[in-house]
Amino acid sequence: MTDTTSVPNGWVCLYPQDDRVIEDNNVTEDNRSTSQTVTMSLDNRGLAYADGFFTTMGVIDGLILWSDYHYQRLVSHAEALQLNMNSEELLAVLQLYAQQLEQGMLKLVVTRAAQNVRGYGYTPNANGSDCEIWLKATAMRVSTELQLSLPDGNLVPIQPNASAICLSSQIACLPPPLAGLKSLNRLDNVLASGELQRIKAEPLASKLASTLGEGLLRDMSGQWVEGTMSNVFYQLAEEPLSESKTAFSIHKDNENYLTTGQWYTPSMAQSGVAGVMRQVIIDALSTTQYPVIIRSLQGEDLPKLTQLFFCNALRGIMPMSSLTLLSGDGVDF
Asked: How many Cα neighbours within 13 Å face the side chain of 259?
């Protein structure tokens, strides 16, 4: 597996060793690093059948954020998709890239290698199928201006308050081997994200649209499961709340934001992606007075919400100040 210590521009193939890289010698004073172009075969099963998975990792000070959790994703996804991959060795290579990148994002894509089998099929192997491993390193700023201390002492970024909206798009329900995986088939999320962008871009968009940070999605069974790019956590009152909610309001900068009251998060057993940050928060609250409860979020629950936030491994916690329902009514937090 490639263990280069230089960070290339664009995609590289970590495995098999990339001998298809074409160097572009158009180096200028403003761009002293040699750019690289990687070609992917049209027979790649990730391209043809979405046969693979991906993960996106934030990097700060040369370290992969939540690397233990990303490692568990590598192990669990390789097992679920029956891929022959040395996750420990791969993580070590990723850490070398992170050291050189210093600050930014690593996106890893793993696909099943092409086989001499027609159609969808592949030849079973006791150790799993061979795979191709692709990596893109992107220099970018990972937000750390506002951070929240978790009960276990770890710090997680927390974003400014935003608003959310229930989307009409729905995500697929999947069988147990696939539910919860960050597979390459994300078309339902693509279409949902497109819906959210259309709402934001409406010519007569309301003030709410300008503050929209995320959209809440149902699966095909009608349960509200996650955001377009994130997992969701929520708190509930026993009855729908009146207009005055001061008794329930907790400002996002409050250090007790995560430890005051009972948080719930939907199950990933039939749909959605079991995200890295979701598991970080579940584990961090597991020994507190209010461990996270896995609970489905139904339509009748939405008017009873008292708190709502989305989360992912790059942006951390994204608190919401309001949620617009499909009916057009709003719930304020």
From this structure: 16
State CA 308 to chain mean position distance: 17
Supply the pTM of this predicted model.
0.88
Q: Give the residue from 274, 276, 250 showing the smallest Cα distance to 262.
A: 250
Asked whether 97 and 2 are in contact (CB, 8 A), the reply is no
- Residue 39 carries which DSSP code? -
d(CA 130, CA 138): 27
Cα distance between residue 23 and residue 25, in whole Å? 6
Q: How far apart are CA 298 and CA 225, in angstroms?
A: 9
Specify the DSSP element, H or E, that contains 37: strand 35-37
- Cβ atoms 259, 281 nearer than 8 A: no
Give the residue from 70, 228, 230 showing the smallest Cα distance to 159: 230
pLDDT digits (tens, 9 = 90+) for 163-210: 999 999 999 999 999 999 999 999 999 999 999 999 998 865 566 667
C-alpha span between 108 and 101 (Å, rounded): 14
Cis peptide preceding 203, ω within 30 of 0: no
Contact call for residues 219 and 269 (beta carbons, < 8 A): no
8 Å CB contact between 231 and 273:
yes
